[in-house]
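How a chain folds remains the central question behind the approach discussed here. This step matters because it turns folding into a mapping between discrete strings. The sequence in question and its structure tokens are set out directly beneath this paragraph.
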Amino acid sequence: MVASKRGIPYNKFGGDTMNIYAAILIDIENSKAYQVGYRNALQDCIYSCSKKLNEIFVEQLEYEVRFCGGDALQGLFRDPVAAMLYFRLLEIMILII
């Protein structure tokens, strides 16, 4: 980003401002190695936790966190602090359940 003569940041593509986002990408490592029942239970747990967190973080989400490819989650946040807090709360919720 470069400051313009008016003091308003603009990007090199001609826009007046550039939005900054934080992406969250979570992968369940070696998920194919888990027994089917355990893997399904884990995915259900993560799904219900992420659904609740999506409701809590609705104002900070550009795109809600959701499963993609069966064993990974991804989402886009308007604020990097919110993305980190979401991730930490997801970790805590999974450990508690």
